[in-house]
Write a structure and sequence with these properties.
This protein has 226 residues and is of the alpha/beta class. The chain has two domains: 2-95 and 201-221, Periplasmic binding protein-like II (D-Maltodextrin-Binding Protein, domain 2), CATH 3.40.190; 97-200, Periplasmic binding protein-like II (D-Maltodextrin-Binding Protein, domain 2), CATH 3.40.190. Helices cover 29% and strands 32% of the residues. It contains seven helices and twelve strands. The protein has helices at residues 10-21, 56-62, 72-78, 113-127, 138-147, 182-186, 212-221, and strands spanning 2-7, 26-29, 38-41, 46-51, 67-71, 86-91, 97-104, 131-135, 153-157, 173-178, 189-200, 202-207. The strands form three sheets. Strands 4-1-5-12-6 form a five-stranded mixed β-sheet, with helices on both faces. The chain has a five-stranded mixed β-sheet with strand order 9-8-10-7-11. A two-stranded antiparallel sheet has the order 2-3. A hairpin with an 8-residue loop joins strand 2 and strand 3 (38-41). The mean pLDDT is 96. The site of 1-O-pyrophosphono-5-O-phosphono-alpha-D-ribofuranose has 11 residues, from strand 10 and helix 6.
Length: 226
């Protein structure tokens, strides 16, 4: 039996259901909109579990589900060394979003990452504390800034409405997901050149601990190569 974890709400859930339907598997909730169990028609030995997108990486790594759909950003953020826990079966071509670094649009002296590094150092000298970057993507942002020579900063945790933290004076910069760019613009923020951290999309993952024969059987059923 393969347990398939799918996001429990919103666009990601609907587009996941559509993606499987186009490949002959009908996923549906078994009861009301509030019930987090479901059924799978069109394949034997697959059980549907509806979960928070953010919890699917951990559930895969723990072996409580064998297959899961979530954003590629969330797997990289939640699982250190993610390749040792999961493998990608298919990029699903929806849920596209860019994880980016952004600063106030009025910071005319910051266009590039090098500018940000210089301003961060000057900021620390002037204020006696490090420039604050609000994000929920702590692991990805730390790794990215370290690779790009930005050192004088601190992360402040923001689990939602991250673009508002600058106006609320709890951060000087942010790192968050953008797709249309509307939220950044509405909050008077601009992306830093070279500040694209990850291009995310919904992805079908298999746990490395899952039975390879069972995973391959499902992958073939879905028409996935390899
Ligand atoms: N505006 C957007 N457009 C496209 N994809 C997005 C957008 N915002 C977030 N995403 C993607 O959706 C996925 C889920 O995002 P998020 O962690 O915000 O989940 P959520 O809907 O708040 O669910 P939960 O709180 O249950 O985990 C992530 O992979 C993220 O990249
Ligand atoms: O570039 P845009 O098209 O404006 O999209 C970006 C916004 O979408 C996401 O928020 P969402 O409303 O999905 O929820 P969240 O606040 O829980 O992240 C993300 O966190 C941004 O705030």
């Amino acid at each position: 039996m393969l347990k398939l974890g799918v996001p429990s709400k919103g666009r990601l859930m609907e587009q996941t259901f559509d993606w499987f339907a186009a490949r002959g598997l009908r996923l549906s909730r078994s009861g009301s909109d509030r019930e987090y169990a479901g059924r799978v028609d069109g394949a034997d030995g697959v059980q549907l579990v509806l979960l928070s997108a953010g919890e699917i990486p951990r559930e895969l790594a723990a072996g409580r589900i064998q297959i899961g759909v979530t954003g590629s950003d969330l797997v990289r953020e939640k699982l250190p060394g993610w390749r040792s826990d999961v493998r990608e079966l298919a990029a699903m071509e929806f849920g596209h979003a860019d994880l980016v670094l952004a600063v106030p649009a009025c910071w005319t002296d910051v266009e590039t990452l090098d500018d940000l590094a210089a301003v961060a150092t000057a900021f620390r000298r002037a204020h006696g504390f490090r420039l604050r970057i609000a994000t929920k993507y702590h692991r990805l942002i730390r790794a990215f800034l370290s690779e790009n020579g930005v050192a004088d900063y601190q992360l402040v945790d923001s689990q939602g409405a991250t673009e508002g933290t600058v106006a609320n004076l709890t951060a000087e910069a942010i790192a968050d997901i953008t797709s249309s760019g509307a939220t950044l613009r509405a909050n008077h923020l601009k992306m830093v050149d070279g500040g694209l951290v990850h291009q995310s999309q919904a992805t079908l993952f298999a746990a490395n601990s899952a039975d390879p024969a069972e995973v391959d059987r499902l992958a073939r059923h879905l028409g996935l190569a390899g």
